[in-house]
Amino acid sequence: MQWHLGGYQEAAAATGTYGIMASEKEDFSLSGPLHLAIVDWTNAHHRRSVAASLVQGVYILERDRQLKRQGPQALASPWWEFFHFQLLRHLVDDVDSSIFAAIYEFKPPKSHYHNSLDESPRYVIAFRGTITKPESVSRDLELDLHILRNGLHETSRFEIAIQAVRNVVATVGESNVWLAGHSLGAAMALLAGKTMAKTGIFLQAFLFNSPFFSAPIERIKDERVKHGLRIASSVITAGLAFATKKSYHNNRSVDPFAALSAWIPFLFVNPGDHLCSEYIGYLEHRKKMDDIGIGAIERLATQNSLGGLLMSAMGRDSEPLHLIPSANLIVNLTPCQDFREAHGIHQWWRPDLDIKSKLYNYK
């Protein structure tokens, strides 16, 4: 499917895409995926790039609002218009009035209708992550802390988000809707996806650098030490879960993960990003435990977190959102200069990514 580059390509001439100033990263003509002259919706790289670009559009919507950029000065719209999406509406936080999400509708030109659109979405609900600017940082960091204490589901921002998701799905059906998010926004999209999956509605989700707060075991180089620590952690977690009768029953039919196992989000992780890299070990360790014959311990441990168990023991409602049964894990192995680059959204539409993909399907 051919998309016309128009004026965006001209403005990008002779400009380095990944070595530009931070302020220039908001400009689609300087840092967007202009290489996508053709969008093939059956191509995983293309779908990933479009989803990441729509998330970036939400970041820029909020920055346009903060800087009062309007009309020709506004920078957000090329991030979705380039791919023939229209902005239906944005979602606003009730505490600080910041824009934290956007609902897009895919409106390809009639000239493209003869091409296959089977893998394309009709609507995308995208969530941004934390913006470290005075107008939004206080509220965003508050929500980051809610993730840390497993309480994101109790926040008003999530209530606004899940109601929007439910409304769109009720109107157009689950097969037409994508969720996408980065960092804090990936946590929002993940929680929305899990919430819908519990009701039997499985939405395609693109989760970029979703936070996984735990000890940074994945950064340990010695594989034996790493594996030993993970086994010890699993035994402790499973023991506490059993002792408190948390999420445990001998009958596999009531396995709380069973209802979610058919939902398989796309989980995008960079090993250099300590905020999300633990997903690599979390998913792989479960497989290893099965391979060595002690999968029952890990089956119980993988459904709980030490923090969540402690919160429950204190009588606090806890929803460890990072605990998921199945995922299509995509790891970016391309070397990064620093944490900022490893955690950034821009990496996910680079055309030269060295990635490794693996499907983890909970059974």
UniProtKB/TrEMBL annotation:
Pfam families: Lipase_3. GO terms for biological process: lipid metabolic process. Keywords: Hydrolase. InterPro entries: AB_hydrolase_fold (IPR029058), Fungal_lipase-type (IPR002921). This is Fungal lipase-type domain-containing protein. GO terms for molecular function: hydrolase activity. Residues 163-202 form the Fungal lipase-type domain.
